[in-house]
Automatic annotation (TrEMBL):
Residues that, per the record, bind UMP: G50, D70, T131, G132, N133, P134, Y135, F136, T137, T138
Native source species: Saccharicrinis fermentans DSM 9555 = JCM 21142
Name used for this protein in its record: Uridylate kinase
Keywords assigned by UniProt, alphabetized: ATP-binding, Cytoplasm, Kinase, Nucleotide-binding, Pyrimidine biosynthesis, Transferase
Predominant place of localization: cytoplasm
Amino acid sequence: MYKRVLLKLSGESLMGEQNYGIDNNRLEEYALQIKEISDLGVQVGIVIGGGNIFRGLSGAAKGFDRYQGDQMGMLATVINSLALKSSLNNVGVKARVLTAIKMEPVGEFYSQPKAIEALENGEVVILSGGTGNPYFTTDTGSSLRGIEIKADVMLKGTRVDGIYTADPEKDPNATKFDEITFDEIYDRGLKVMDLTATTMCKENNLSIVVFDMDTPGNLIKVIKGEKIGTLVKN
Ligand code: UDP
């Protein structure tokens, strides 16, 4: 069983059935899944995206300056992180939000020792604001934070159940990998995460499990080592 994990949740998944913002049912489903593994004693760090609210690149396409757009995107991840914290608290889980950008009292400014101390105290730690820098993504933020907190694995929760030879939503012949190496991902040009994020994991030997987080009960299965999703390793 994994002892310390970095869970990456996409902002987009938080929309649930809606096409913008935060769906409370989805949020609560996530909180309950996280509670299940936290109750087992697993130390959980979480990075959540902001795509349900704002993405720098789409903002830039509409005429926003990219630098500013990315700052808006990072703030969006903080909004999602606060929502998740509140939902976790509602189901009885202690959680705290650390921010990559100084904005106390919204959340405490991130530092690695602070994050590890909170994890060791059994708190769920939500690492918000991505990396704090523009031109990065929350996937890269989660690679970075996963490495910093010395997570055993990065769990990338998505709406598909793993990595396929092609996009399963477009190609009916696509087949799923149970396991794949980082090198194979490069060779096949698969889009699992952006290359910056993938390379950070490869170079620091942080394995990734890509799995379907939108099916309740899946997170605990991954923790217990059930073979769902796709394992990416060196
Ligand atoms: N972002 C950023 N730096 C980071 C992480 C995120 O500038 O280190 C911005 C970027 O504009 C991005 C937005 O925050 O589009 C939301 O993050 P992301 O697109 O990764 O969210 P997701 O796709 O997971 O919902």
